[in-house]
Amino acid sequence: MMDVLAPVARHVIAPAWARWERSPYLRHYRRLLKTQFDPPEVIRQRQWIRIGKIVRHACRSTAFWVDRLGQVGVDGQRPITPEQFQAIPLLRRRDIQSHHREMLSSAYRGAQLHCHKTSGSTGEAVEILVDEAAQQFKRGCTLRSDEWSGWQLGERIAAVWGNPEYLKRGWRGWLRNALLERKTYLDTLKMDEAQIAEFAARLRKRPPSLLMGHAHSLYLFAEYLRTRDTPDIRPRAIISTAMVLHDWERRSIEDVCRCRVTNRYGCEEVSLIACECERHQGLHVNADGVYVEVLRPDGSPASAGEVGMVVVTDLRNLAMPLLRYQLGDTAVMSDRRCACGRGLPLLESIAGRVADYVVTPEGKWISGISLTENFAVMVPGVAQLQIVQETIDRMVFRIVRGPDFGPASLDLIRRLVEERFGPSVTHTCEYVDRIPQEPSGKYRFCISKVACRCHERGPRELILD
Ligand SMILES: [Zn+2]
Question: Is 0.85 surpassed by the pTM of this model?
Answer without folding.
Answer: no
